[in-house]
Write a structure and sequence with these properties.
single chain; about 850 residues; alpha/beta; 2 domains; six-stranded mixed beta sheet; ion transport; Probable potassium transport system protein Kup; transmembrane
């Protein structure tokens, strides 16, 4: 009885203690939950970089739906057209190929492509009269000779060379000298020289085009009778108006050339129609000027003693073709078919206007009202005062459009130069739906500042035109060389030879004639050309030197070291995730830059290392990624592919990828118990790393190579940090500088001067610093052997331990015992 009471008492005590323990455990759990909730509550004050569950935004879905609807309507229209006979089938094939024509893009083509060549009637005839000494010195043979040279220059250079030949040679729809070089660079490394030179000259001339086009149009205000006195009293007013227009023009570039082109296209349609009508009105009094269609008139006057300008006349004639290169460069913006469709109208309008100016000059060559004028512009003078008001307004607008053509061409050229690694990677935006419509903020700012500098130096269009066109002749010559190489290797060797002889002869004559402008302002464009060429050459050669030092490591080379570092508990985490952003597209191997960044100085231990590269696709809304994990759960090589319209919000996409891999089990859980800046408790801390290269002073590289590398790094510094390209500004990325591993010079060996022999120090018997103890499982060290012997003796007590004298360790057996117990605990 007593025994049973004791047992029941013990049972009650046990139950009470269990209940107390359960209550205590429950209270502890509640306290932990409250603590965790209190800690994570801070996450509500920041916003985690998250992505939507959808792969497209509502605006993107609407854009794609409209695009599909338009394509369906176009397909139905083509099907119905094809059923109407041979012409219908031809039209259906045309609309299905690269020469597709649409009314909307044809309007855009007018606004984007033809602005520069459309303003040439404003100043070509004016420059011609100035070179001949005024209207009073111009005879009939001079006017017909000038018109003949202008007509055949436009026909041969613009129509034949660019429209009929060059535009058939494109690189995935893109035109221009860099796209052409990309097609033929495999035929010789020397081709980079004309390509760089031509591209630099084109970009240099892009600076002068806005200045000369807009200023010459604004100066037309001085020809209006009510404003003549006002402008005489304020001579700097035209310069101020030009500056305001240019600043406004560059400020709207971020809206995209498609939206600008649609507005400008309608205006250009009116402008060229106006050119044709005005020219025809003056032609009605003297149709005999069409005798100038005979090229003999041009050749005779060029070498005539009555030609006051001599060979320099060809420099004036060249002004009528200045928009031809921009026409080829902008092909990717509007499509080849739309240029084919619109060029005949443009050519007819230009010819009518030039010949109309010629008819007016013949009719007024003896008019004392005009022969005494200091400056005379036939374009404005051939109109009645009432029509002149309309001409001034339209010409100012046309000058703005001409500037737009060169600006968009410059964006394209810089983008293509970046792909060739001839220029630093700049931030590129794509405001429109098509790949060719792009905007580069840095280039826009540089062009705007350079154009304003040109206006500050030259003041008016007369002085700017003295520098204009010289650099563009270089672009045309180099384009001819590259086109000839393409035609030669395409199997048309006779055609290539004829093409080279004819067009090089014409354009070299243009260049020689334009060199007369060198001392009158041409030096400025040549200086700009050399500066841009220096940037391209420096970036290209510096990149070659860097790539020659780039090494990739195989999996067997880098995985053992990373595996050991990943499990080394003695080294604290640098971050839970270390993300390296790289331009290297290799996914099966690891760049040594990343490997040495992890192990440089203090090793950067992490739960996971990431090497991420981002590439832009030709589709607008692509969002996809691929992962290579090398068979591990701590090293990931990620390649993200984004459409050209998709913003590079890299942090948000990195978080999504980490969540995806965590759900599939490829990435171990990284639950965070403390608040973080990115407010994502399911992913550990992330540290972004960007690696820049630097040249070591003792590197074995020539003085020329060292100068190129230093210049490249200076250009990179001025071009801007890549932090903005990846959208990392709020995340404080680590920009790490690594030495460029060029072979280093070996200095001579040092000679020891103290001859006194010193005894070797006796091995220390003190206990080693636990922080410096190597991995206990590493059997390549003396301590590892001691640990192994201690564990063997513990597992087999009867086995005699290895004597200490047989080991090569400076550690004691007591150290080995301690480390052995630590290793056993870790394994358990």
């Amino acid at each position: 009885m007593v025994e049973s009471d004791k047992q029941s008492s013990r049972a009650r005590k046990q139950n009470n203690s269990k209940r107390a323990a359960a209550i205590q455990a429950e209270q502890t759990a509640i306290a932990l939950k409250k603590e965790e909730a209190a800690l994570l509550r801070a996450d509500t004050y920041t916003t985690a970089p998250k992505v939507s569950r959808r792969t497209l935004t509502r605006e993107e879905r609407e854009a794609l739906a409209k695009q599909r609807e338009a394509e369906n309507k176009e397909a139905e229209k083509l099907a119905s057209t094809a059923a109407k006979g041979r012409i219908g089938r031809w039209w259906a094939r045309l609309q299905s190929g690269p020469n597709k024509i649409t009314w909307g893009m044809a309007i855009v083509a007018l606004g984007v492509v033809y602005g520069d060549i459309g303003t040439s009637p404003l100043y070509t005839a004016q420059t011609f009269l100035s070179g001949q000494g005024g209207l009073g010195n111009v005879q009939r043979d001079a006017v017909l000779g000038m018109l003949s040279l202008v007509f055949w220059s436009i026909t041969l250079i613009t129509t034949v060379k660019y429209v009929l030949i060059a535009m058939r040679i494109d690189n995935n729809g893109e035109g221009g000298i860099f796209a052409l070089y990309s097609l033929i660079r495999r035929y010789g490394s020397w081709l980079a020289i004309p390509a760089m030179l031509g591209g630099a000259a084109f970009l240099a001339d892009s600076v002068l085009t806005p200045a000369v086009s807009i200023s010459s149009a604004v100066e037309g205000l001085q020809t209006l009778p009510p404003l003549e006195r006002f402008f005489d009293d304020n001579p700097s007013l035209t310069l101020m108006i030009t500056v305001v227009i240019i600043v406004v023009l560059f400020s709207v570039q971020s809206r995209g050339t498609e939206s600008i082109g649609r507005v400008f296209g309608s205006i250009v349609l009116v402008w060229f129609s106006f050119l044709a009508v005005v020219g025809l009105c003056n032609l009605s009094n003297d149709w005999s000027v069409f005798e100038a269609l005979n090229p003999v008139y041009g050749v005779q006057f060029l070498f005539s003693p009555h030609n006051e300008a001599g060979i320099a006349l060809m420099g004036t004639v060249f002004l009528s073709t200045t928009g031809a290169e921009a026409l080829y460069s902008d092909m990717g913006h509007v499509g080849r078919g739309n240029i084919y469709f619109t060029w005949p109208f443009i050519k007819v309008a230009l010819v009518c206007n030039y010949f109309g100016q010629g008819a007016w000059m013949l009719a007024n060559s003896r008019n004392p009202e005009y022969t005494t004028l200091k400056t005379l512009n036939p374009f404005f003078q051939m109109m009645t005062p009432n029509v002149r008001y309309i001409a001034v307004v339209l010409s100012v607008t046309a000058g703005v459009i001409a500037s737009q053509a060169l600006i968009t061409g410059a964006f394209t050229m810089v983008s293509e130069a970046t792909r060739l690694n001839w220029m630093p990677h700049l931030q590129v935006r794509y405001p429109a739906r098509t790949r060719g419509q792009l905007y580069i903020p840095v280039v826009n700012g540089v062009l705007c500042a350079s154009t304003l500098i040109v206006l500050a130096i030259f003041k008016d269009s007369e002085h700017i035109s003295a520098a204009y066109g010289l650099a563009l002749t270089i672009t045309m010559i180099t384009t001819t060389v590259l086109l000839a190489v393409y035609i030669w290797h395409d199997g048309h060797r006779l055609g290539a030879a004829m093409f080279t002889v004819v067009f090089l002869a014409i354009q070299i004559m243009f260049f020689i004639a334009s060199m007369a402008k060198f001392l009158h302002g041409g030096w400025f464009t040549m200086l700009l050309t050399l500066a841009i060429l220096f940037v391209m050459y420096t970036w290209n050669e510096g990149t070659k030197i860097e790539r020659a030092q780039r090494r990739h490591m195989r999996t067997a080379d880098f995985l053992p070291a990373l595996d050991k570092l990943h499990g080394d508990f003695r080294i604290p985490y640098f971050a839970d995730n270390i993300v390296y952003l790289t331009s290297d597209s290799e996914t099966k191997r690891l760049d040594t830059d990343i490997f040495f960044s992890i192990f440089a100085d203090h090793p950067k231990r992490a739960r996971a290392w990431w090497a991420v590269s981002v590439e832009t696709t030709d589709e607008p809304f692509t969002r996809e990624y691929s992962v290579e994990n090398f068979g591990t759960n701590f090293l990931f090589r990620v390649r993200i592919r984004l459409g050209f319209k998709v913003s590079q919000s890299i942090p948000a996409y990195i978080h999504q990828i980490m969540h995806d891999l965590s759900k599939t089990g490829e990435l171990p859980k990284q639950k965070s118990i403390y608040p973080k800046v990115d407010a994502d408790p399911d992913i550990g801390t992330i540290r972004y790393v960007l690696i820049h290269k630097a040249l070591m002073p003792e590197s074995k590289v020539s003085a020329h190579g060292a100068f190129l590398l230093q210049a490249k790094y200076a250009i990179r510094h001025m071009a801007g940090t890549p932090v903005k390209w990846f959208g990392l500004a709020p995340y404080n990325p680590l920009v790490e500088v690594q030495p460029l591993f060029v072979s280093t010079r070996r200095p001579p060996r040092l000679k020891r001067t103290d001859t006194t022999a010193r005894p070797l120090p006796t091995p220390s018997r003190q206990k080693a610093d636990p922080a410096a103890i190597p991995d206990p499982l590493d059997t390549t060290t003396g301590l590892g052997e001691l640990v192994k012997s201690v564990e063997s003796s513990i597992d087999s007590p009867e086995q005699r331990p290895v004597p200490k004298s047989r080991t090569k360790s400076d550690f004691t057996r007591a150290d080995a015992t301690v480390v052995s117990h630590m290793a056993r605990k870790k394994r358990q």
